[in-house]
Amino acid sequence: MPSRRSNGGLLARVNFPLYTLQMLTSRHVLVGGGGGSSKTGVANGFEIFELFHDGVQFVAEEVTRHETGPSVVMNCASHNDGKRTVVVAGQESHCQLYNVNMKIINLENGEVAKGSVTGTGTAGLRQRRRSERDDAEREKEKLKQERVEEVVDSNSNVRHKKLQLVIKPADSIQTDFSKIEPLQRIVRVSPTGKYMATGGTDGCVRLWKFPHMTKVHEMIGHTKEIDDMDFSPEGESLATIAKDGKGFIWDVASGEKRKELCWAVPEGTKYMYKRCRFRLVEEDKARTQLFILSNSTSSKNLSFLQLWDADGGVVLKSAPYKETLSALAVSDNGRFVAVGTMFSGNVDIFIAFSLQRVLHVPSAHSMFITGLEFLPTKLDGPAITSNTEAAVVSISVDNRICVHSIPFRHTLPFWIVIVLIVLSIFGAFVVCSYLGI
């Protein structure tokens, strides 16, 4: 199919390489990364942007920036329960929890607008040692410099409100225990917000109560570092993939392994799973489907975007690629799936059930894609009004944040098609009768 540039394009640039991306609300996106512990002058941390659509394209405005000292933010996850947003970020061998509190302030009188989230949300966390509390207090003092940005009233284009966003570090806990170089590679929070799963270089999958961060299960099965994981839409299953080339489906309640994911690899080739994401099947919620990126260890062989039946452990459909795939996202309504490539920086969006490609963005980034996230349709708060059916945000180590969108496809409802067919048949019958045929 011909290439099409997205309606949005470049949203923003930051001054550090980007490794992780997370939608906090229906219109707030968090990006994280950094230059690492070496003294390169490149900061470590994350920034939060608010997204709008001006009628022509998507635009982004920075809401806040938080630096994390020598620790680069390589992965993160979040949960919004309608009252507050909690972010967990991988910083070296530890997982750091942040409470994100938002206040909407009327510019006219300075009062907090009705419905604003102002709670600190720190109840239930374990007590920390005095040294930890002192460090946290010093961090809180630093974070009192709050960034305030204007927001657009959902009912008009007049800016008469401000969004005050406060980030407060809470608990921190070690989640990886590798003897060589402990590092948390991935963290995910279940859709219900009840559990958090982490994986790292020691190859152990750990399940935690969330947000209290007390350990529930240690799930042993992988022999090498964890690359990715994802909770099923109902939160009952957890899919994990690792550098040992294996993929597992785990039972969250018991911590037991349900199934190993295996497929018929072409003879003489070796494949490694790279990313995995569950898909919500709206038409049949009893079915559990899973998208997986499979890359060949040889550049001569194709890579694949695969749609799996997670319960049966079989591949239902696949789309081949001539280069290595690096990033994956599935829309929260289960209708679309997006992939990013390693070398060309391309972004593609497919219809989820058929794997028909509907958008191809060549060279969306100058380097490999490190993260993709669809703009949500189900999170609390006013959704972004736009002329697009779906939009995906992409990041890369080229420091750029981009958005790629699909315009609404103008199709006739099914019942109208049926009526037109019936009328056509009836018209043909009348004409034939009139002509005596």
UniProtKB/TrEMBL annotation:
Record field: compositional bias (Basic and acidic residues): 131-142
Organism: Neodiprion lecontei
Start-end of each WD repeat: 187-218, 219-260
Primary localisation category: endoplasmic reticulum
Topology of this chain in the membrane: Single-pass membrane protein
Positions of transmembrane segments: 412-436
Keyword presence, Protein transport: yes
Superkingdom of the source species: Eukaryota
Keywords, sorted A to Z: Endoplasmic reticulum, ER-Golgi transport, Membrane, Protein transport, Repeat, Transmembrane, Transmembrane helix, Transport, WD repeat
Protein name from the UniProt record: Prolactin regulatory element-binding protein
Pfam family, one: WD40
GO process annotations (BP): endoplasmic reticulum to Golgi vesicle-mediated transport; protein transport; regulation of COPII vesicle coating
GO MF annotation terms: guanyl-nucleotide exchange factor activity
Subcellular location: Endoplasmic reticulum membrane
Listed GO CC annotations: endoplasmic reticulum membrane
Region of interest called Disordered, as start-end residue ranges on this chain: 116-142
Gene3D superfamilies tied to this protein: YVTN repeat-like/Quinoprotein amine dehydrogenase (2.130.10.10)
